[in-house]
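Aim 2, interim progress: modelling of the iron/sulfur cluster-bound target.
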Amino acid sequence: MAYDIAADIQRLKKEKNAVILAHYYEDGDIQDIADYVGDSFYLAKMGQQVQQDTILLAGVVFMAESVKILNPTKTVLVPDMEASCSLVKGAPYDKYLAWRRQHPDGIAVTYINSSAEVKSISDVIITSSNAQQIVESIPKDRKILFGPDQHLGRWLSKKLDREFVLWPGACEVHVLFNAKKLYELIAQHPDAVVIAHPECDESVLQYASVIGSTSRLLEEVQKNPAKKFIVATETGIFHQMQKLRPDVELIQAPVMDSGCSCNNCPYMKMNSMEKIKYALETAKPQVGLEESLRLKAKVSLDRMMDITSGKPVTWPAEFTV
Ligand code: 13P
Ligand code: SF4
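Predicted structure of the complex, ligand included:
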């Protein structure tokens, strides 16, 4: 009989009292052995709530760090500690701090795709599924520093008609979608609904009828009666889309070089079933954060959780670090 790694992982989960949280960009086999699959906000919320002793986050490291910040008594495992994100890499702490210090009166609204260190000097964390609600809760007379994703920031700032000071970061996957090629593809498939993640460049976003987080895009495919979708986000999400709507045709939005598989996130795709099994067996690699850093980073994550659950928050008058 062929070796069944999924069965082994299920056994280990029970033995170790562990739960697996997976992001939509993981490979289908990983999504299928997870207890919860979702977007980055959902994973942070679930990570805060689950009761098991061990949480394995099959996603990228900043997602696991957020869980550790919010739920510090749990053992938080990742399949691969190298699974970073171009937005995290493009926003080093020292430079981000210098940028913040240039605008001490501003409120730093920071994408969850950031390091714990950058979160520790931010006022509030957002994800693409809650960004609008959070920005709308900030008094209109306050200046907003938005980072590290300039495309999400630009899209939001136009949508809310509010000026942001933008950090110049980008997702190395979403910026590769090509507007000219997308225009040509739409001409070939006039019946297709174009859906896009807000990390795409505005030249691509202009063609999308729905722009939103991974969970919003999935919801659209589930609810929209159309039979064809052009999808401008990472390919892992096709797994859930096709499960929910086996009757629809999903077309990947084009990138400039049609021969490459560039709309796969190289960090998300570092994870594998073998690495998940190893992590559960050995309790390694584990996310560890110094307590003083964790407590500072928790302030901005707590504001996100409070605003999204309808609790009142206060904003610091000035940045003093
Ligand atoms: P979501 O919060 O929409 O899942 O996005 C996370 C991400 O990394 C997109 O590239
Ligand atoms: Fe980061 Fe982009 Fe990968 Fe998302 S898809 S984890 S933003 S590099």
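Residues 291-308 form the longest helix (18 residues). DSSP finds 15 helices and twelve strands in the chain.
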